[in-house]
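Running this now, will post back.
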Amino acid sequence: EHTWALLMAAARNIAHDDRMMREGRWQTRICLELRGKTLGLLGLGKIGAQVASFGKAFGMNVVAWSQNLTQERCDEIGAGLVSKQDLFSRSDFVSIHMVLSDRSRGLVGAGDLERMKPGAFLVNTSRGPIVDQAALLKILRAGSIRGAAIDVYETEPLPTDHAYRALENVVLSPHMGYVTEETYRIF
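Update: finished.
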């Protein structure tokens, strides 16, 4: 749910529009519709599959990739199986759903981010170190992609002077994906 909240906040400029409204301004940016856009999922496990269902409910085309992803799993979920390169070059939204391991650390590097469309967003609610943070900052500062929505970081809590905090094309949340009343009742 938090992944979808961040994706929607990015597509609909929620954080920016909230700031503008509080400053007395009105309609300063144009939003995106999700219907017909491509949602690329890096990982199609339990959470990735749930995000895929949200994407399909909004009329999105869903594609997926991970090192061990099978056509059978993609067929079960209703996602297209693509290469990692195709996922980054075709997707309007790339959302990460993998566990952090030696194999996934730094998995999303500069080359992947450079393949993204200029109007695309990266959404990370998985683990910060899966993405090369320096490469992402470079891409975001250059405006090479439309933006990012991030809930997880290399260092947590995110330092108060971190560069992400100064970027207008980033929606940030403080690792809140699992912080719900229901989750806390379980533990």
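The mean pLDDT is 96. More later if anyone needs it.
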